Amino acid sequence: MNLLPVAPAHQLAVQPDEHRWLIEGLWGEQSVGLIGGEPKSFKSFLALDIAVAVASGKPCLRRFAVPRPGRVLLFAAEDAPHVVRRRLEGITHVSGVALAQTDIQVITAPYLWLDDGDHVARLYRTVENLRPRLLVLDPFVRLHNRDENASSAIAPLLALLRELQRDYHVSVIVVHHAKKASARLRAGQALRGTSEFHAWGDSMLYLRRHADTLTIFAEHRAAVGIGPLHLRLRTDGDALALEIIDSQPMTASQEPASPSDRLHAILAAAAAPLGFSELQKQCRLRKATLCQTLAELTRLGQVIKTPQGYALPNM
What we know:
This protein is of the alpha/beta class. It has two domains: 20-257, P-loop containing nucleotide triphosphate hydrolases (Rossmann fold), CATH 3.40.50; 270-315. It has helices at residues 43-56, 81-95, 117-130, 151-168, 196-200, 259-269, 276-283, 287-299, and strands spanning 21-23, 27-28, 32-37, 72-76, 104-106, 134-138, 171-177, 203-210, 213-220, 226-236, 239-246, 304-306, 309-311. Strands 5-4-6-7-3-8-9-10-11 form a nine-stranded mixed β-sheet. A two-stranded antiparallel sheet has the order 1-2. Strands 12-13 form a two-stranded antiparallel ribbon. The radius of gyration is 20 Å and the shape is globular. It starts with 20 loop residues before the first strand and ends with a strand.
């Protein structure tokens, strides 16, 4: 009888702390996931900033360290090559490195279909040949001809990218759109299409734009998330790049648009479950509003109540 391989739990491999992160706090080592956000929330700029950071070893967003830099393989389906180059030159300028010093390899094919066997085989051979530390695909909607609302149609494509990650020990970032007018939804629930997207990711970055305020949230399967942090598009001559403009808690006028977003951001940043009083203090919500929000998020399974307080399900 052919049995599955097993091992005692205490003999499982231990991952050194220095190998946990591709980008400290933002993206896990050899993780798959999404950069999600509504249109015009600078998702592609963030993806390119990550690419420059990993390829150059410079901190991402001039803040988050890259422990072990390496080659990046990029497919930007919606931008012409000269646009990609101009954006990368702007980000490298702000980061203090020349574009020629970064090992970013750009796929210049006009199409890359994850539901086409020949295209998938060419992608696998390219990854096997180049051995990048990071693969960036932007955006997901340009990688297939399937119904994004159908789990049965999308799950095999995401499984393919997971298999690529495992076979070649590469991190995979996919840029994906959020639903229109999704500001009042929890970030993960705001993604367009099937819930498979949110369930698939090891590391997830969400961009939110409310009026002139741009915020970023990071969520991880195996680590505490961060955010919200405020961003802006910095102009330096002809160079454009995102930058963090503060890392302090939001003021009342800057907080996420919905109580659920505010609550989720605080729980994502917490190292342990939080009691009702502490939540109310940090959220700055009326008692009735907090009770109603907690009840709804608990009903949806987005928040759990423990003996120690409230927490996100993956804590």
